[in-house]
Protein backbone atom coordinates (compact mmCIF):
# COMPACT_ATOMS: atom_id res chain seq x y z
CA UNK A 1 0.00 0.00 0.00
CA UNK A 2 1.23 3.47 -0.83
CA UNK A 3 1.97 5.41 2.34
CA UNK A 4 -0.71 7.87 3.40
CA UNK A 5 -3.25 6.77 0.78
CA UNK A 6 -6.69 5.46 1.61
CA UNK A 7 -7.29 1.88 0.45
CA UNK A 8 -10.73 1.33 -1.05
CA UNK A 9 -11.58 -1.11 1.72
CA UNK A 10 -11.33 1.66 4.31
CA UNK A 11 -13.82 3.81 2.45
CA UNK A 12 -16.73 2.34 4.39
CA UNK A 13 -15.24 3.67 7.61
CA UNK A 14 -15.35 7.21 6.26
CA UNK A 15 -18.56 7.40 4.26
CA UNK A 16 -20.26 4.06 4.55
CA UNK A 17 -20.40 0.98 2.41
CA UNK A 18 -22.35 1.19 -0.88
CA UNK A 19 -24.57 -1.42 0.75
CA UNK A 20 -25.85 1.35 3.03
CA UNK A 21 -27.69 3.00 0.16
CA UNK A 22 -28.17 0.01 -2.12
CA UNK A 23 -29.35 -2.55 0.39
CA UNK A 24 -26.83 -5.07 -0.93
CA UNK A 25 -23.18 -5.45 -1.90
CA UNK A 26 -22.29 -3.55 -5.06
CA UNK A 27 -20.06 -6.19 -6.67
CA UNK A 28 -21.76 -9.54 -6.12
CA UNK A 29 -19.43 -12.03 -7.76
CA UNK A 30 -16.64 -14.44 -7.00
CA UNK A 31 -15.32 -14.57 -10.56
CA UNK A 32 -12.27 -12.36 -11.16
CA UNK A 33 -12.97 -11.20 -14.72
CA UNK A 34 -16.60 -10.42 -13.91
CA UNK A 35 -15.47 -8.46 -10.83
CA UNK A 36 -13.08 -6.37 -12.93
CA UNK A 37 -15.82 -5.77 -15.52
CA UNK A 38 -18.18 -4.63 -12.76
CA UNK A 39 -15.55 -2.24 -11.46
CA UNK A 40 -15.08 -0.81 -14.96
CA UNK A 41 -18.82 -0.40 -15.37
CA UNK A 42 -19.17 1.56 -12.12
CA UNK A 43 -15.81 3.35 -11.89
CA UNK A 44 -14.74 3.65 -15.54
CA UNK A 45 -11.99 1.92 -17.51
CA UNK A 46 -8.98 0.43 -15.80
CA UNK A 47 -5.90 2.58 -16.52
CA UNK A 48 -3.84 1.34 -19.44
CA UNK A 49 -0.58 1.59 -17.51
CA UNK A 50 -1.96 -0.81 -14.89
CA UNK A 51 -3.22 -3.26 -17.50
CA UNK A 52 0.15 -3.22 -19.26
CA UNK A 53 1.84 -4.11 -15.96
CA UNK A 54 -0.41 -7.12 -15.39
CA UNK A 55 1.58 -10.15 -14.28
CA UNK A 56 1.51 -13.53 -16.00
CA UNK A 57 -1.47 -14.81 -14.00
CA UNK A 58 -3.55 -11.74 -14.83
CA UNK A 59 -2.75 -11.77 -18.56
CA UNK A 60 -5.77 -13.97 -19.26
CA UNK A 61 -7.97 -11.01 -18.25
CA UNK A 62 -6.25 -8.49 -20.52
CA UNK A 63 -6.02 -8.38 -24.31
CA UNK A 64 -4.50 -5.59 -26.39
CA UNK A 65 -4.20 -3.29 -23.38
CA UNK A 66 -7.87 -3.62 -22.39
CA UNK A 67 -9.94 -5.80 -20.13
CA UNK A 68 -10.85 -8.95 -22.07
CA UNK A 69 -14.45 -8.89 -20.87
CA UNK A 70 -16.57 -9.58 -23.94
CA UNK A 71 -14.40 -12.43 -25.19
CA UNK A 72 -13.70 -13.84 -21.73
CA UNK A 73 -17.22 -13.60 -20.29
CA UNK A 74 -18.24 -16.97 -18.90
CA UNK A 75 -22.04 -16.75 -19.10
CA UNK A 76 -25.08 -14.78 -20.15
CA UNK A 77 -25.92 -14.24 -16.46
CA UNK A 78 -22.49 -12.71 -15.97
CA UNK A 79 -23.06 -10.37 -18.91
CA UNK A 80 -26.43 -9.30 -17.45
CA UNK A 81 -24.98 -8.75 -13.97
CA UNK A 82 -22.39 -6.37 -15.37
CA UNK A 83 -24.66 -4.54 -17.79
CA UNK A 84 -27.28 -3.73 -15.14
CA UNK A 85 -24.80 -1.85 -12.93
CA UNK A 86 -24.98 1.95 -13.08
CA UNK A 87 -21.94 4.20 -13.28
CA UNK A 88 -20.87 5.74 -9.96
CA UNK A 89 -22.46 9.11 -10.75
CA UNK A 90 -25.86 7.55 -11.48
CA UNK A 91 -25.59 5.29 -8.44
CA UNK A 92 -25.07 8.29 -6.15
CA UNK A 93 -27.69 10.46 -7.87
CA UNK A 94 -30.30 7.70 -7.48
CA UNK A 95 -29.63 7.26 -3.77
CA UNK A 96 -28.48 10.58 -2.28
CA UNK A 97 -30.72 13.60 -1.89
CA UNK A 98 -28.19 16.26 -0.95
CA UNK A 99 -24.56 17.06 -1.76
CA UNK A 100 -24.52 14.43 -4.51
CA UNK A 101 -21.99 16.36 -6.61
CA UNK A 102 -19.53 16.66 -3.73
CA UNK A 103 -20.02 13.01 -2.80
CA UNK A 104 -19.42 11.87 -6.38
CA UNK A 105 -16.22 13.92 -6.56
CA UNK A 106 -15.02 12.56 -3.20
CA UNK A 107 -15.77 8.96 -4.17
CA UNK A 108 -13.95 9.35 -7.48
CA UNK A 109 -10.93 10.62 -5.55
CA UNK A 110 -11.02 7.76 -3.06
CA UNK A 111 -11.78 5.00 -5.55
CA UNK A 112 -9.13 5.70 -8.17
CA UNK A 113 -7.65 2.42 -9.32
CA UNK A 114 -4.04 3.49 -8.89
CA UNK A 115 -3.31 3.90 -5.16
CA UNK A 116 -0.74 6.60 -5.90
CA UNK A 117 -3.51 8.71 -7.50
CA UNK A 118 -6.04 8.32 -4.66
CA UNK A 119 -6.77 11.08 -2.21
CA UNK A 120 -4.76 10.92 0.99
CA UNK A 121 -6.64 10.90 4.29
CA UNK A 122 -5.75 14.56 4.78
CA UNK A 123 -6.92 15.49 1.27
CA UNK A 124 -10.16 13.57 1.75
CA UNK A 125 -10.92 15.27 5.05
CA UNK A 126 -10.41 18.67 3.40
CA UNK A 127 -12.85 17.78 0.64
CA UNK A 128 -15.92 20.08 0.32
CA UNK A 129 -18.19 17.10 1.06
CA UNK A 130 -17.03 17.19 4.69
CA UNK A 131 -16.86 20.97 4.93
CA UNK A 132 -20.36 21.87 3.80
CA UNK A 133 -22.81 23.36 6.26
CA UNK A 134 -26.12 21.56 6.70
TrEMBL record:
Keywords, comma-separated and alphabetical: ATP-binding, Kinase, Nucleotide-binding, Serine/threonine-protein kinase, Transferase
CC per GO annotation: nucleus
UniProt key word Magnesium: no
Gene3D superfamilies found in the cross-reference section: Transferase(Phosphotransferase) domain 1
Coiled coil: none
GO molecular function: ATP binding; protein serine/threonine kinase activity
Record's protein name: Serine/threonine-protein kinase AFC2
Organism of provenance: Carex littledalei
Lineage: Eukaryota, Viridiplantae, Streptophyta, Embryophyta, Tracheophyta
Amino acid sequence: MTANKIPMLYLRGIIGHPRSFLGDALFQTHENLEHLAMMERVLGPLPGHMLRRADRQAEKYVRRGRLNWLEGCMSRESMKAVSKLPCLQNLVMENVDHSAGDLIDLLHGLLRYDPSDRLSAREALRHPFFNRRS
